[in-house]
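The freezer alarm interrupted the setup, so I double-checked each line after restarting. Inputs confirmed:
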Amino acid sequence: MVETATNLRPLVEMRGIVKTFGGVHALKGVDLNIYPGEVHVILGENGAGKSTLMKILSGTYQPSDGRIFVDGTEYTHLTPVQATHLGIAIIYQELSVINELSALENLFVGRIPVRRRFGFGVVDWALMRREAAEILKKLAVTLNLDTPVRNLPIAHRQVIEIAKALMLNARVVVMDEPTSSLTTLEVRSLFKIVRQLRDAGTAVLFISHKFDEVRAIGDRFSVLKDGATTGTGMIADTTNDDLIRMMVGRAVKQYFRNEQPVDRRQAPVLKVSHVSSRDRRQVVDVSFEVYKGEIIGFAGLIGSGRTELMNCLFGTMARSSGRIELNGRDITPRGPVEAVKRAMAYITESRRQTGFMPNFSIENNIAVSRSVKISPLRGTWGLIRSREDHRLAEEQRKAMAVKCASVRQNITELSGGNQQKVLIGKWMCTQPDVFIFDEPTRGIDVGAKAEIYRIMRALSNSGKAIIMVSSELPEILAICDRVAVFKTGRIVQVLDGATATEEQILDLALIREETAK
Amino acid sequence: MNRTQLATFWERYGTFCILVLIIAVFSALSPAYFFRPENILQIGVQSAITVLTALGEFFAILIAGIDLSVGSILAITGIVTAKLMVAGLHPVLAVLGGGVLMGMVLGAINGALVNFTGLHPFIITLGTNAIFRGLTFIISGANPVFGFPYEFVLALTGNVGFVPAPVLLALCLAVVLWFVTTKTRLGRNIYAMGGNREAAYFSGIDIKLHTLVVFIISGFCSGLAGVLSTARTGAAEPLAGQNFETFAIASAIIGGTSFFGGRGRIPSVVVGGLIIGTISNGLNMLHIQTFYQLVVMGSLIIAAVSIDRLVGQGR
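Predicted 3D structure, all chains:
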């Protein structure tokens, strides 16, 4: 069936799809053909453009350029409603079932059948039950239709989503990392369903990070990298190494690495030992050192526990154990107040959530943490020194090259990159010795990225301990002297930044997991 | 004036404009009585207690919280102050202990419960409001307390120069709190918490300490209001301050304080309190019954905030 697939006319044909967000290219000309009766795996690193492509397919986003054909007819402005009518259904990672409704009601959300009774329109429960039973029989699953969805296991909620898609006569079903929260057994039954769909002629687009699953279920694959297709073919004819090479394998700029080799015979600047989160699951007994002039990077999958580790270090997440020493002195903070007072700085991964105060000017955003650092008694008492605050804000504006009209401007008026520079500037004012950069360049344009790397390198060279978390491997390799590969709350291995490759890191972060199971 | 300029102007002076409008309306409706110096001072006296509770409420709302217990703190501090004086304690000590300190302790209980349980202040103060009111009845036996020294009443209802003492007290407190909000780290940290609690936490601001301080300030203001209220009526009523949380919240919100936290100014809150006082005074002048006053008051609150939303959309 699969062999013949390529001889058919594609069900969906996407040609040269380009999508830009305010000057940033998320997609730079992607081609994708989807044939009926195939399981087509989409591979790619975080940020390669997979989700954007799927959102264009479902009509959520309009492409900036490129053409979309469904059944040979071109659709220039595909809307979500149109996409549904054409039989394109997407099952997102965060399932969109309504937890308080029963399984049956969820199957018919938005199109509950009604019949006339005594002049009133009443819900036609009998019809709903009939149709639901039919579709579940087709999927060969049994499931109590009257149970509120919140009481069902995740796997069953997924089945409901799939059933919902099928009831709308979906011909293309997109599954965005469907197995991420499923047990092995549940994955097996999901795959059974996927195979049934395929054999019935439905095209399944399967987005996944896990190679063993990709091998088990996939017929064909397409690899995305930096918003472009770097390869497409039959899974059976391709090795994992080939796939990884297509996912990464680009010329990496290494300008930001240290020129002088790091001297690791001296005592480390920062020594972290036996840090575990309170639940001992999200972060498990992590120890590492940072030497003078060195940036250590934490690579790993999203959800591997890197951010949780940083929170444990900074005192914003409860620890069950752990000790942090700066130049031999114990600085383990009990909470963020102590962390700030003991010269730690944490540039968090989400500017909007944990970064800036939207009601504050640039100047006040810069001033808050310094005020905590220098003020006696936990930063509460004392007067604002507005002249000093202004002077420091102006200093940071120059040092960080923040593009703004005035430091009295509201911070929300700045671009993401400039906001990030302001936040780095805010921490600079506390004169910290330990910097944690968590995804410091997320959502930032290329120019600002380079400046942030430059700042990080300069800080490191001046003797500060720099810890960086990033999900972008090229970034990690371009700037970090050592790379700690993180997985399920532990450091799997620490690699030398100069010799490590993306393939090696991905191998440690992805594939080992599967062989270990 | 374009949209954003209008919005900026409105944020600063909008509340004041509403006050002027309301004064104009009442002056037109009751030209003989309303706009006279004695009555203007009277409005000030009537508004003083509302302004005091509103100042405390302002802080609670500024951190995206709320304090529903201002009315019952007012009642209990009033009763305790009166009881202490009747028992023979010097009025100054009674005011400091039974009014101010008591208010701060009750506020601290609110803050500590919020910190300890992690529940929204709405729930905590909904509960403590009932508790404090109940305690007021228990302490007083549901009877008003009177028979305290006349000097106490005189001192807190008389004039200093030509300014009534309650007005002076409320104004002084407003100035002090205005200083706290604009010139101190404490104030800036409270605004930071209101703007983005998580970010404030990650910036090293001690969220729990500031929450505690905010509720202590609110309790302090209500305690002072309780003392004033007792002096004004000449007796401490266990039912005093009922519905005052409504007026306190309304004053703060009419004064442009954002319900989502992080935005608002003390001067506008004072004007907000004056608006409430003016409406109540004006309705009295027009001989409108108390029951109807509540209806009108509620409607005006909704109208004032709606206008604020409509004009201030550019924010």
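Quick read of the result. Residues 361-430 of chain A form one domain.
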